[in-house]
Amino acid sequence: MKKRKITLSTTQIIMLSFLIAILVGSALLSLPISAKNGESVSYIDALFTATTATCVTGLVTLPTATTWSIFGQIVILVLIQIGGLGIITIMAGVMVALHHKLGLKESQLIGDAFNINSLSGLAAFVKKVIIGTFIVEGIGALLYMLVFVPELGARGVWVAIFNSVSAFCNAGMDIVGENSLCNYATNPLINIVTSSLIILGGLGYIVWWDVIRVFKEFKKMKFNCLSKLTLHSKIVLVSTFVLVVGGATLIFAFEYNNPLTIKEYSVFDKIQMSFFQSITTRTAGFMTIPQENLTNASSIVSLLLMFVGGSPVGTAGGVKTVTIVALFATAYSTIRNKTEVSLFNRSLSRQITSKAVAVTCMSFAIVTLSTIFLSVAVNASALDIMYETVSATATVGLSKGITPFLNVWGKLIIIATMYFGRIGPISLAIAFQSKKENINSIKNPTEEISVG
Fold it and tell me: Which of 173, 241, 364, 440 is the most buried (most CB within 10 A)?
């Protein structure tokens, strides 16, 4: 009897690659050598840590700095890098480095992993992504050392490297202490370096190359070159600016007189702490303000920013800026009774707007189900629980302090939320990209319904 060959779709391969990385990481973290005290941590905590690292979330049930040994921290850092770049990208990078030509299957995997429609030039793209990532992370680590080495000595080198990779990958895990970066809330260098790494990772690689291309044209005295940015880059840059500045302004106003957060600080420090809070909600997870001390208004603003997240083809999570902009543009066109959805004098295809609706609905469904299940498993306020589930779904890592106190069921719920929050939108995007409607297919009859 002839054996049936099992073939996996690109979606299944990507989902399986994340799952394998999590399981291998959890096995390594459950070893005694991974713990600082030499005693094995419980497997559920090892699994939780491996998931939060691979999904670049940042929620932790055990303090990263005081729980894990150097070996354990290295395992976590490798998982963060894998989660940020993706296993498919790393494997393709190895193939490119060994001068192996990427086949059609490998090219399709990379294209799906990055949600890129064109399969041409992917080897060069992967090479630029990996080199660019290591350059940015290396610069970030060197700048961090200016603060951490004088304070911590030789250990400061490792802390700087860990923080740089974690910040760029929008992971939000650190080994500075148990209160994240709160001790550096008024340190301009730490704020600027961390914020820059978060933003660069969240902008997406194709925006990098587009901005570099335009900058080169600008150097050639082509003064109209700024208008030459692609539509994708324009949406990402404008929406990122609006969200960061708008979020910081609202948080500054809502927290200005809050004695538990920024009231006692100078105006300059209030501004930089407000901006950091706005930027870290872009799925980074570091904090300079204890999240449990935020006012309800600031918490809601942070929830919205976390749900949106960063931008496509980068290291950030969330539904993505381009998705939300496309969604609002579609709503605006509908309100104006227009058949065409347009931005910056360019029309959006029906496939793009449909994908935006689907990705947003999927993420909202994950948040809703996770919130309901966690409400049953954990005794906490509705706002705190929603903060936790939105943070997990959007792979942010900010928490109002309930993560360390989760019971087993609560941990399993958040583990599943982090995994599907990271994988779900990617899988849905791939499904939209892969499936094309057959023009010859039989269509059902149309019937009107009432909406709104």
Answer: 173
**What is the rounded distance in angstroms from the CA atom of residue 89 to the CA atom of residue 91?**
5
Distance CA 202, CA 308 (A): 11
The pTM is what?
A: 0.88
| C-alpha to C-alpha distance for 239 and 322, rounded to whole angstroms | 8
Q: Phi then psi for 35, rounded to 5 degrees?
A: -95, 145
Q: Which amino acid is at 410?
A: G
How many angstroms separate the CA atoms of 419 and 57, rounded? 9
pLDDT reading at 91 higher than 70: no
pLDDT surpasses 80 at 267: yes
Backbone angles phi, psi at 239, to 5 degrees: -65, -40
Say if residue 118's pLDDT is above 60: no
Task: For residue 241, give Cα distances in angstroms to 237, 249, 284, 379, 437.
Answer: 6, 12, 16, 37, 36
Q: How far is CA 99 from CA 79, 82, 124, 131, in A?
A: 25, 21, 12, 16
With a CB cutoff of 8 Å and minimum separation 6, the contacts of 198 are: 167, 168, 170, 279, 280, 282, 284, 286
Kindly list the domain boundaries of the chain, sorted by start residue: 11-434
Please name the residue ranges forming H helices in 114-230: 122-152, 155-168, 188-203, 205-219
CA 357 – CA 98 distance, rounded (Å):
41
- Give the C-alpha separation, 29 to 214, whole Å: 45
Q: How far apart are CA 238 and CA 408, in angstroms?
A: 42
- Using an 8 Å Cβ cutoff, are 28 and 34 in contact? yes
pLDDT band for 127, please (50, 70, 90 cuts): confident
Instruction: Report the C-alpha gap between 386 and 375 in whole angstroms.
Output: 9
DSSP string, 43-65: HHHHHHHHHHHHTT----SS-HH
Q: Give the list of residues 6+ apart from residue 272 with CB closer than 8 angstroms, or none.
A: 186, 188, 191
Among 205, 214, 202, which residue's Cα sits nearest to residue 116? 205
Q: What is the pLDDT of residue 13?
A: 72
**Where do we find the tokens 């918490």?**
299
Q: Which of 114, 123, 108 is nearest to 434 (CA)?
A: 108
Question: What is the Cα–Cα distance from 311 to 271, expressed in whole angstroms?
Answer: 24
From residue 194, alpha-carbon distances to 67, 138, 211 in Å are 23, 13, 21
